[in-house]
Specification:
CATH topology: Porin
Number of helices: 1
Structural class: mainly beta
Shape: elongated
CATH class: Mainly Beta
CATH architecture: Beta Barrel
Mean pLDDT: 85
Distance between the termini: 36 Å
Number of strands: 10
Radius of gyration: 18 Å
Strand content: over 45%
Length: about 170
Amino acid sequence: MIKKIFLCAVFALVTIISMNAQDGSFRGGVHIGIPTGDSDKISSFVAGVDISYIFNSGEEFEYGIASGFTNFFGKTEKIMMFGPHIEIEHDDYNYIPVAATAQYGFSEDFSLGLDLGYAFITSDSGGGDSGGLYYNPKVAWSASEKFDIVLAYRTMKIDSINISALTLGASFKF
């Protein structure tokens, strides 16, 4: 069901973009963060890269396509069982999102945005799942005309599991 909704959203976005006569622009960025939700049990740190192609629709609203790569670095867990400690080492967990993105500038310096799509698991530690619903609400501060600081809450939802992180990143406009 989620895949059907995602495919319909991608089709609608591609249609809208193809109807738009304006030229778009690329954005690229990096992010780091801390795992939250279910992922803080297996990961201690998050890092990744972002890329998007954005169209302007008026002065305040932008939309486009977003992707990237996010890695949750596995952590070592120490468990005490009747005396000696047992160490469990969790593998890295990563995914590639493919999403529609929209951003609304409510002032010259600040904007709110949302990426919504599907994230494909690229690590072997996915437990047999191929991916899940991806959403990424974010707040951006324009440090300059070509550079933004972005605070985001990235989430991939698989059934009742939330692989999520609170991230801080930098976005560069090309």
